[in-house]
Amino acid sequence: MGTVLVGAVLAGIVALSIRNMVLDKKKGKSLQCGGDCSKCRGCH
Questions:
Q1: How far apart are CA 26 and CA 33, in angstroms?
Q2: pTM for the complete prediction?
């Protein structure tokens, strides 16, 4: 029972993480670029 509970919690965390990445991508953000051009050299 404990294994199922831990697996469900981990699956939930992974799902939320993926959801946040998809929402960030739709907002124009990406994993490589935080949108702070002062720290980036020509990513746009």
A1: 14
A2: 0.61
